[in-house]
Specification:
heterodimer, A: alpha+beta, Uridine Diphospho-n-acetylenolpyruvylglucosamine Reductase, domain 2, Uridine Diphospho-n-acetylenolpyruvylglucosamine Reductase, domain 3, 24 helices, 26 strands, 29% helix, 18% strand, B: Fumarate Reductase Iron-sulfur Protein, Chain B, domain 2, four-stranded parallel β-sheet
Chain lengths: 770, 468
């Protein structure tokens, strides 16, 4: 940890001046902002978190990012990466740290032949989609902030959006990336290809400051609107990669199998030794999956290779009004169960419809208790028939009224109300807080009712929208940040809703991230052992705590790192802070699947202190005995997860579209169980005796192999025995979850070197339409 | 009775409410040309609002150093169109600049700064048509001399270079409308309108005003030229010189409220002027401002009264235009590759249809919400194949006096816009504002492109002159 974080004002002014001078010396001119105004401007993102960074660095390429990280090591200063600052959890807010703005890394290359895009982290999501559109391709994840939010930020938070129902979240579309690790080492990660060191650190200093000649752009290279490495700006583009790295540029895009290295020394070059220990131990683990959603705590992403999809030929909207939220939720389940798969299903409750209608009067059915807004995609000639079928199904599920768009203009008109929710909310108060919980699909109706009750009790003029197909609920709470009483009230409501979601087996965040504001809540979701494992992994990558130290994992007891208790003026306690320790342990045992972790034994926190790194030396066999001691009695799906290693007990939660199975169940049995429940598990194995564990351990395909998602994407949660015998439970049996590191997905393809899968929860898809 | 809203700077009582409308979501960032160019939050709308907030609360004084990010703002208001919460950024910026000027008056150092001096010199010139004409020049030599004098006074070679670069070709400086009088309608008379001549438009781009008069006459309107009118005040208002702007508004009120122009609709052919005039002369907030004022944008007016058919339109003839044909009703039917997507024809005849791109005036688009009307006129015009530029909401970098005050940034913004132009590959760029016309003329010239840059009125006038 960095020791001297607390300083007086005078000291900090001196420190800023000194640091600014030394940082400016390692960058090209004009890349460091140190005046008080600029620091204030960078003191916030789209959340309610506040903090004043020490400095702002504006690197233009990966070499400069690496130089900044090496500088941070030398000066013992923490770094916080920032994209467009559209995050809602405060993940880009820096206190006593330097903001590293990625806004100037804006190269964008589309390769239509391989359907990939190689993108700088500062490129906006919409710019990628726009560039892809020119080739008839699309980038499907569509967070509402997509017009402004950057790919770097989308990757950091594993962004979702309405269309993730049909297309999956950001993680599914990231094939690989280049990152600068906390040591300053530049590493290229690819889906199921071992990490590769991009450059020697010392060489890089010279190639960067020594004015390396700019690489000639590749023929198909274009710049996103706003690429700074653009001839219209005086500065010449510097080489994105030094010469030694050029040779390796293409590797992440080529998911060809590499031979599994038998020992670290056989691989690559001597630089391999510079990689963090876990990477050396398990080079074939899915490091890309781990880095997506890691909120800038494991490394700074300097380039992302994205998979692109064929662009839908046509899309039509459909709006259906329901008497109440429960019937709307049930209609979604019925629709999916029938194999009718819209591209997106959004829900608006009556309160939110009235708020929007009062502002721009888009003609929402405000007399109804709830409305569903669907987007249906497909070929133009088959779209109408599908729309008719969906409309009929919705009517059969109790829809009072169904409006079907006939053309693009009508579709846009139907979407207008939904897209104006943010603007409408901002009329009610100086700010609003968007809750981001996910509940199992089967719990949708009940959860929405419970949230309504909470909002009514609090007398907040709030409403809810939801990516309802995924179970991702966004109650929108108006907020006056200047009024402490109002803040406290909103925090309490947000906390109550999060607890309600946890009791139902859900997660506290589906797409916004933990950031600074939900750190304390994370401890309510994950058990102490799992949190400890996550801390150890983080420490293995960032032993000095240089990367976004105020974000994501809750502070360890006695670490001096307090949640939300920043010293900045106006930096009140973060939402969810104050952690209501003890008070909230309303052990919801038996309330439904996934209740367990709430009752997490907080006394265990810190148990693993001193055990600073995950021991990776134990092989698969060593874990056999550990499987007997599953130490998680309140396990959500304990029926399955609690009896790992026992003969197959496969449980299908049909309404939730989830299957729980022991890891040694065969793929064939799991598929059969899903089919028997009218669902589909889109996995296949070459042998009838292949177990789920074997499939996950050895999976070698890229993320682009399966329409419904690769095994990594289907793996929602897992009970895992670590090599040292501890048992952790990662993920959540819901369809969207960005709370904590995805250790379970990391271990896909890892050959059991990081841990042994004991039980898994897998996503199911609707049956193929008859 | 027309009223002029007094500007108190950020100290105005309702500033806090304007600032509170911003929820800091950041969706404005990609719309901002300077954020696009510089990639720094300080040079985006959200960062500027943070600075304005600090200034409004008294935590920050807007001196030349602290206000530099505000100086770098084009004031294009594209962020307003992008904002989901309806933040009135333009109003905030005007207040911030008024606060800057107020501070500058208190601080001698700031008053003497080259930039402030240049701004005042320009604004003074705008109030004096003869001086402005002298600057713009009857001949290239005189013009250069005028600008050299200005630049020397300012002491900024970059200003000299920029000013020389935006000098219009002599063909656009003549002919000139008479100072006063009434131009009679052609054909059946539909009514009378007054013409707002503007300052730069009348000095540097006099041919545009002549064309505007012609188009109005072809549409059956007497055109009243009211003597004594002055600049609309936009440049002064945007520079924070609200006193100068208020004086100019008073002069114009006197001119248009009396004599032959009294009570007539006042046609404005410059987007920036139209937005300022509509905003300052009686538009109710929240209403469709373009329709609420005596001041009317040319395209809005023509669209509302209905454009009279051009001579060539009545014949039903089909000019040679590749795959597209135009019917007598002005609709375009296309075969094969489709309208607007074809490439340049090899037919060099003057009458064949041309690919025409409309370049929005930022204030017309983002301030008054006028985007459909000029496009509708073009789409209905014979001999016109409308093409759309990528990023139609983007500023060209002219932005009033910005291209003189921030020449390097203006160049960067223009370079971005020229990429859009190259991508759309038009033969004609139609503009709606004098600054845009000067900027695009320069952009096209420096890029060596074979593209004509015309004001909407010029393209319409050409259509009325055309014979089948």
């Amino acid at each position: 940890m960095i020791s001297d974080r607390a300083t007086t004002d005078a000291e900090s002014t001196d420190r800023v001046t000194t640091l600014a001078a030394s940082l400016a010396a390692v960058l090209t001119p004009g890349q460091v902002l140190s005046d008080a105004n600029a620091r204030a401007v960078y003191g916030r993102d789209a959340s309610q978190e506040r903090g004043t960074p020490l400095l702002v660095a504006l690197p233009v390429d990966a070499g400069e990012v690496a130089a900044i990280v090496r500088w941070a090591n030398a000066h013992d200063v923490a770094l916080v990466a920032r994209g467009a600052g559209t995050g809602l959890a405060g993940g880009a807010v820096a206190r006593d740290a330097v903001v590293v703005s990625m806004a100037r890394l804006r190269t964008l290359r589309i390769d239509p032949a391989t359907r990939t895009a190689v993108v700088g982290p500062g490129v906006t999501r919409d710019a990628v989609d726009e560039a892809a559109a020119a080739h008839g391709l699309a980038y499907p994840p569509d967070p509402s902030s997509g017009v402004a939010s950057t790919i770097g930020g989308n990757v950091a938070c594993n962004a979702g959006g309405p269309h993730c129902l049909s297309r999956g979240v950001t993680q599914r579309w990231v094939l690989g990336m280049e990152v600068v690790l906390a040591s300053g080492l530049r590493v290229r990660l690819g889906a199921h290809t071992p990490p590769r060191v991009v450059s020697e650190r010392r060489d890089e200093v010279e190639s960067n400051t020594g004015k390396a000649p700019g690489n000639a752009p590749e023929p198909n290279e274009i710049h996103a609107p706003g690429g700074l490495s653009d001839q219209s700006v005086s500065r010449e583009p510097s080489a994105v990669l030094p010469p030694s790295g050029d040779l390796e540029t293409g590797e992440a895009r080529d998911p060809d199998d590499l031979p599994l290295p038998t020992s670290p020394r056989d691989r690559d070059s001597g630089r391999f030794h510079d990689l963090p220990l876990p990477m050396r131990e398990a080079p074939t683990a899915d490091w890309t999956a781990l880095f997506v959603g890691s909120e800038g705590t494991l490394g700074l992403v300097t380039e992302v290779t994205l998979r692109l999809a064929p662009r839908p030929e046509a899309a039509r909207a459909l709006l259906a009004a329901f008497p109440d939220v429960a019937s709307a939720g049930a209609a979604v389940t019925a629709l999916l169960s029938a194999g009718l798969r819209p591209a997106a299903v959004e829900l608006m409750d009556q309160r939110i419809m009235r708020i929007v209608e009062d502002w721009i009067a888009p003609g929402l059915p405000v007399e109804s208790g709830a409305a569903l807004l669907l987007s249906v995609e497909g070929r133009p000639e088959s779209l109408d028939a599908l729309l008719v079928d969906i409309a009929a199904a919705l009517s059969a599920s109790g829809a009072i009224e169904v409006r079907r768009a006939q053309d693009d203009a009508q579709s846009a008109a139907l979407w207008r109300g939904r897209k104006s929710v943010g603007g409408a909310m901002s009329r009610l108060a100086p700010a609003y807080y968007s809750v981001d919980v996910v509940v199992p699909r089967g719990e949708l109706a009940a959860a929405l009712r419970e949230i309504e009750t909470i909002l009514e009790a609090a007398e907040l003029p709030a409403g809810a929208i939801a990516h309802v197909g995924d179970g991702n609920l966004h109650p929108m709470l108006p907020l006056n940040p200047a009024d402490p009483a109002d803040r406290a009230r909103v925090e309490r409501v947000a906390h109550d809703i999060a607890e309600a979601a946890l009791r139902r087996g859900g997660t506290i965040t589906g797409e916004h991230g933990i950031g600074r504001e939900k750190r304390a809540l994370l401890a309510r979701q994950l058990d102490a052992t799992t949190l400890a494992a996550m801390r150890e992994l983080r420490a293995a990558f960032d032993p000095r705590g240089l990367l976004n130290p105020g974000a994501m994992l809750p502070p360890e007891e006695g670490s001096g790192d307090t949640v939300g208790a920043g010293t900045e003026a106006g930096a009140e306690a973060a939402l969810g802070a104050g952690a209501r320790a003890g008070a909230g342990t309303e052990t919801g045992a038996g309330i439904g699947p996934g209740n367990g972790a709430i009752a997490g034994t907080e006394g265990e926190i810190g148990q693993a202190k001193g055990n600073r790194s995950v021991s990776m030396t134990v092989a698969v066999e060593g874990a056999e005995s550990a499987a007997e001691s599953v130490a998680d009695p309140n396990h959500p799906s304990q029926l399955v997860h609690g009896r790992a290693g026992m003969p197959s007990t496969i449980v299908v939660e049909a309404a939730n579209f989830v299957l729980h199975a022991p890891a040694d169940a065969t793929v064939a049995d799991a598929c059969a169980a899903a089919a028997a429940a009218g669902r589909r598990l889109p996995l296949s194995a070459t042998s009838p005796t292949t177990t789920l564990r074997a499939l996950l351990d050895g999976y070698r395909g890229g993320a682009d192999t399966l329409e419904d998602g690769a095994p990594r994407d289907l793996l929602l949660s897992a009970t895992i025995t670590l090599p040292d015998g501890r048992v952790i439970r990662c993920g959540r049996a819901v369809h969207k979850n960005v709370a904590g590191y995805d250790l379970h997905r990391l271990m896909v393809g890892a050959r059991g070197r990081l841990g042994r899968f004991e039980a898994v929860s897998l996503a199911l898809v609707p049956p193929a339409r008859p | 009775m027309l009223t002029v809203t007094p500007t108190h700077g950020l100290a105005a009582p309702d500033t806090a409410a304007l600032l509170d409308a911003c929820i800091h979501c950041g969706l404005c960032l990609p719309a901002c040309p300077t954020f696009d160019l510089l990639g720094a939050e300080t040079d985006g709308p959200r960062g500027r609002i943070v600075l304005m907030s600090a200034a409004a609360q008294g935590a920050l004084t807007l001196d030349p150093t602290t206000a530099a990010p505000l100086d770098r703002c084009l004031g294009c208001r594209a962020c307003e169109s992008a904002c989901p919460s309806g933040v009135q950024y333009g109003a905030l910026l005007e207040r911030a600049r008024a606060s800057q000027v107020a501070h500058g008056r208190r601080s001698r150092a700031a008053t003497r700064s080259a930039r402030a001096l240049a701004r005042r010199t320009l604004l003074r010139a705008l109030r004096r048509p003869r001086l402005l004409r002298a600057l713009a020049g009857a001949t290239a030599v005189a013009q250069r001399v005028g600008l050299v004098a200005l630049a020397l006074r300012v002491g900024r070679p970059a200003v000299l270079a920029a000013a020389a670069a935006i000098a219009p070709p002599p063909a656009l400086r003549k002919p000139r409308l008479p100072a006063a009088g009434t131009l009679a309608a052609y054909g059946t008379r539909r009514g009378a309108v007054a013409l707002f001549r503007g300052c730069i438009q009348d000095a540097s781009l006099a041919a545009v005003n002549v064309a505007t008069g012609e188009v109005l006459r072809h549409n059956g309107y007497d055109v009243v030229l009211a003597e004594g009118q002055t600049c609309c005040g936009a440049l002064a208002r945007h520079a924070g010189e609200s006193r100068i702007a208020d004086e100019q508004a008073a002069v114009n009120r006197a001119v248009f409220d009396t004599g032959a122009a009294a009570g007539l609709p006042i046609i404005v052919n410059a987007g920036g002027c139209a937005t300022t005039l509509v905003a300052e002369h009686g538009a109710a907030p929240g209403t469709a401002p373009a329709l609420m004022s005596r001041y009317v944008d040319l395209a809005v007016f023509l669209d509302r009264v209905g454009l009279r058919p051009c001579p060539s339109a009545g014949t039903g003839t089909v000019h040679s235009m590749g795959t597209s044909t135009i019917t007598s009703t002005g609709t375009i039917t296309s075969t094969g590759t489709g309208t607007g997507t074809g490439t340049r024809s090899t037919d060099t005849s003057a009458t064949r249809a041309k690919r025409v791109a409309y370049l929005d005036s930022c204030h017309l688009r983002h301030g008054l919400g006028v985007a459909a009307e000029p496009r509708a006129l073009l789409a209905a015009l014979p001999g016109t194949i409308p093409v759309e530029l990528p990023h139609p909401d983007r500023c060209c970098g002219s932005a009033g006096s910005y291209s003189l005050m921030q020449p390097a940034l203006a160049d960067g913004v223009l370079a971005r816009r020229m990429k859009d132009v190259v991508a759309a590959d038009p033969e004609i760029i139609v503009v709606a504002n004098p600054g845009c016309q000067l900027q695009l003329l320069r952009g096209v010239r420096e890029a060596g492109l074979d593209i004509e840059v015309l004001h909407l009125a010029q393209w319409l006038a050409r259509a009325y002159r055309a014979t089948p």
